[in-house]
Amino acid sequence: MRPFLRCLPGLMAAAALGACQWGQPAPPPSAAFADAVPAQEQRFAAAFQEVDAWVARKAFPGAVLAVGVGGRLVALKSFGRLDASPDAPSMPVDAVFDVASLTKVVATTTAVALLCDDGLLRLDEPVVRYLPGFAGPPGHADITLRHLLSHSAGLPSPRLLWKHARTRDELLEAVERLPVEAPPGARYVYRDENFILLGQVVERVSGQPLDRFLAARVFEPLGMRDTGFNPPASLLPRIPATELDTHYRHRLVRGTVHDENADLMGGVAGHAGLFSTAADLSRLAQLYLGRGRLDDRPLLRPETVEGFIVRQDLPPGSSRALGWDTPQGQTGSFAGPLASPDAVMHTGFTGTSLYIDRSRQAFVVLLSNRVNPTRENRQIGAARIAIHTAVLAALDGHAPR
């Protein structure tokens, strides 16, 4: 068994038995895992101090940081509290976060890749082949799955659909009627509607609701037992609060999806709605580093993984791969100046991020609830750069620049 999997024992066995369910107690750490994380305290001291500093600056009430390298989980640590209240419980290391737009890559992109491997989807086929209801407006027939995955479909800038739709069906109908404002492949506009459509494609082609397909084909096989949509109330003690919502639900949001469109869709959508832990996302990251294999068990073909993590150049110069983003220029985007040019990554609005670095054979999972108590707190951009720079410097064996 590979060292990474010894860090989280028993998960693959449970998955093989179909026993992977929301909220099962995590197994006790093996000796390898128990010895690995404390041994890294000194190595990642600067990175841990950086997270603590951003908690003190109220960039977020709390966070969990996971780092893996060489197929091994080498750091897993929690910081701060579950919400902004001074008497809130400490953040548990197994906190279940609303990961927001990480849903796009962890769930929907992986599901599309699986269906491509199954021969049920082809990336350059028009979307209307799989969603006949998308065929109405002019230009829709030219939009392919590749365009949706790379956010180059030519659909208009993001709109607050939840303000106009009253039901899931009304929202989906509004997405299907969106006009085309640019030729597909000619313009990059990041928008949730691309992945709302992809979630519908997965459901139509697989014949299953998106959450059930993902549970059976991704989360259970990978042993991601604290990952899914609409977490049960029994997990509330482990779920960080997100926003004190004053414009949509008029209450503190905790344990239900923060994204308004996903909430209107019942909490299950291709663009948002997933809840997960840093440990579970570490397993997904290792799957991509392993070119579709975890514990020598294949989930995706290597060539499929390679095809999804390479830049698409749609439009020319875009940093987008399929679903994933990649570092840009000298800044490296949210991962900072030490980011590898062949890494893939993504962020979530609630304060989450996932960085997978093939050059270093490493990953960084940073989960925070930065929208608590309000989304007006925008320190997360600077915090992400500083924390990732400190982590990557530690992996490279030198002090942050």
Report on this model:
- With 401 residues, the chain is of the alpha+beta class.
- It is 33% helix and 12% strand.
- The strands form four sheets. The protein has a five-stranded antiparallel sheet, with helices on both faces. A three-stranded antiparallel sheet has the order 3-7-4. A two-stranded antiparallel ribbon has the order 5-6.
- Helix 5 runs parallel beside helix 8.
- The chain is globular, with a radius of gyration of 20 Å.
- The two termini are 37 Å apart.
Would you spell out the secondary-structure blueprint of this structure?
Blueprint: H1 3-6, H2 11-16, H3 31-39, H4 45-56, E1 62-69, E2 72-80, E3 97-98, H5 102-117, H6 145-149, H7 168-176, H8 192-206, H9 210-222, E4 228-229, E5 244-245, E6 251-252, H10 260-264, E7 274-276, H11 278-289, E8 293-294, E9 297-298, H12 302-309, E10 344-348, E11 352-357, E12 362-368, H13 380-396
Antiparallel strand pairs: 1-2, 1-12, 3-7, 4-7, 5-6, 8-9, 10-11, 11-12
Helix pairs in contact: 4-13, 5-8, 5-9
Key attributes of the depicted protein:
Beta-lactamase; 401 residues; 33% helix; alpha+beta; 13 helices; five-stranded antiparallel sheet; 12 strands; disordered N terminus
Q: Any idea what the CATH architecture is?
A: 3-Layer(aba) Sandwich
Return the domain count.
Answer: 1
The biggest sheet amounts to: 5 strands, antiparallel
Number of strands: 12
Task: Determine the mean pLDDT.
Answer: 89
| Secondary structure: helix percent | 25-40%
Structural class: alpha+beta
Question: What is the fold-level CATH name, i.e. the topology?
Answer: Beta-lactamase
| Spatial arrangement of strands, main beta sheet | 2-1-12-11-10
Compute the separation of the termini in Å: 37 Å
Strand proportion: 5-15%
How would you describe the shape? globular
Could you name the CATH homologous superfamily?
DD-peptidase/beta-lactamase superfamily
Secondary-structure element pattern, one letter each:
HHHHEEEHHHHHEEEHEHEEHEEEH
Radius of gyration over C-alpha positions, nearest whole angstrom: 20 Å
CATH class (first level) name: Alpha Beta
Low-pLDDT ranges: 1-20, 25-36
Number of helices: 13
